[in-house]
Amino acid sequence: MTTTATATQQFMSTEQLLKHWQGHRNLTRRVIEAFPEKELFEFSVGGMRPFAKLAVELISIGGTALKGIVDNNMEAYTEEGFNPKTKEEILKKWDEETGVINHYFNQISEERFQETFNLFGQYEFPVYENILYFVDNEIHHRGQGYVYLRALGIEPPFFWERF
């Protein structure tokens, strides 16, 4: 019996994963920009949170989680420290957090992406699955934002235009 070794190719590099995530972040930023100031903080549908609160959640997770992964810190995250009153504050913090995400993401070695990590002391998955969760969570909340914008009569950005 002959055994043939085949080379496996990686589906996606870590650089491509970060670019994919940042593309979603760029789109979510444009959704935030599309909201009128008052509605960003007050409008909701069906008892869901206003989009400003959803944006604060997203701001509070990404960089904090990556820092936790890099530092092997499993403490829970909190949304308590950031209470914006304007769209400008949210956008400024969003942009700052993009830098934090880039900084910590680039400190995670290829090998670490496969390691199991107990994110926030609650979710024990491989690092790459935790990162995919951040992207999934953002897409979910951005979808809520799309519903809000349409309910307000505002055309949301095209979902495929991420950059």
UniProtKB/TrEMBL annotation:
Alphabetized UniProt keyword annotations: Metal-binding
Binding site for a divalent metal cation: 141
SUPFAM superfamilies hit by this protein: DinB/YfiT-like putative metalloenzymes
Source organism superkingdom: Bacteria
InterPro entries (alphabetical): DinB, DinB/YfiT-like
Pfam families: DinB (PF05163)
Molecular functions (GO terms): metal ion binding
UniProt record similarity statement: Belongs to the DinB family.
Name of the featured protein: Damage-inducible protein DinB
Organism whose genome encodes this protein: Chryseobacterium joostei
